[in-house]
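Quick one, T. Sequence first:
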Amino acid sequence: MKRVSLRVGTAVRKLAWEGERLRWRLFHPVTVGARVILIRDRQVLLIRHTYREGWFFPGGGVDKGEPWTKAARREAEEEANATLRDLTLLGVYSNFEEGKSDHVAMF
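Structure tokens:
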């Protein structure tokens, strides 16, 4: 019984995620994000979300008027409980697939 409810919960989260993606695409045609590569003792930290398959660098959306560096620090704190010292911008990457206009700064 517990296994069935876990599968239903996972399916509901995935469905909610897809609905949110559709809503976001319709009402936020341009998105801006920040991600960080956290390295300690030659190991890289990756995050696994419950609502999306795969492993990701910590990060997320940049709030309106928020600098990319502040967003990177905030997301590192929220997702990995990490306090960042120096930040180095590695690049800004864009995705225009599926009608998107996503732009992510990688630190």
